[in-house]
Design brief:
The protein is α/β, with parallel strands linked by helices. It has helices at about 45, 100-105, 110-120, 140-145, 150-155, 170-175, 200-210, 225-235, 245-250; strands at about 10-15, 30, 35, 60, 60-65, 70, 85-90, 130-135, 180-185, 220-225, 240-245. This is Alcohol dehydrogenase-like N-terminal domain-containing protein.
């Protein structure tokens, strides 16, 4: 496509279901993440790690689905998604309390799961372990939440125990030994691990975890008409954390 279609952290309410859909009904609150299909038959799909599908996932935007259609993201008033790839937010298989704000759920579907998945994979949630997070942006602030000037935010607002300026060598050296895990940096005999969102099982566990512990991304809800200005602010680094676009109300 010459003009890309965007948006991959989508939340909304079910308006219609197909005849073979059994887990969802009209009115359910649902979320769609970075991908909307996979082969469903490989080793990774069978382990609910669809993001690592051996044949490649179908991304939510600019992807080519199995029937040849091109996915167009979430800048629209509705989106059609296969049942398996929809993350249930309110009832049955993928459940979180009704009180969890839909707008707050959106950033969890990419930023949230990208930091949550490696934490769980490498057992960073063990009692007594310390986690260092480098960078306090859209992903970093979620790592601090799930494991504040910037220093005041990190310490007072996001709940971090310590803060260091990454360009200050002495401060960084003082933190090396006390930390069991460091996100975004590795040296000596440290393990380097990549993270690109997660499988459906991890995503649902993360949604449940955030709901149970009242963890909410820091967001600013804006109309779609503000999208260009929001992008300009991102380029100018004049943004804290995440914009969430209210597509439905923008199109009324």
């Amino acid at each position: 496509m010459e003009t890309p279609s965007l948006l991959h952290e989508i939340v909304g309410i079910v308006k219609e279901v197909g005849t073979n859909v059994h887990r969802f009904k009209v009115g359910n609150h649902v979320a769609v993440g970075t991908y909307v299909n996979s082969c469903r038959d490989c080793e990774f799909c069978n382990k609910k790690l669809e993001v690592h599908c051996a044949k490649g996932v179908v991304y939510t935007f600019n992807g080519i689905d199995t029937d040849g259609t091109i996915t167009k993201g979430g800048y629209s008033d509705y989106i059609v998604v296969h049942e398996r790839q929809v993350l249930y937010i309110m009832l049955y298989c993928y459940t979180i309390p009704d009180s969890y704000p839909l707008a707050s759920a959106a950033p969890l579907l990419c930023a949230g799961i990208t930091v949550y998945a490696p934490m769980m994979c490498h057992k960073m949630n063990q009692a007594g372990k310390s986690l260092g997070v480098i960078g306090l942006g859209g992903l970093g602030h979620m790592a601090v939440n799930t494991s504040i000037s910037k220093k005041e935010e990190a310490l007072s607002f996001l709940g971090a125990n310590k803060f260091a300026v990454s360009s200050d060598q002495e401060e960084m050296e003082a933190l090396v030994k006390p930390l069991d895990f460091i996100i975004d940096v590795a040296f000596e005999m440290r393990t380097i691990t990549g993270s690109g969102v997660g499988g459906t099982k991890d995503i649902q566990e993360m949604l449940n975890f955030c709901a149970a512990h009242k963890i909410y991304p820091q967001i600013k809800v804006v109309p779609i008409q503000y999208a260009n200005e929001a992008l300009e602010r991102l380029l100018k680094k004049d943004v804290k954390y995440r914009f969430v676009i209210d597509v439905e109300n923008s199109l009324k």
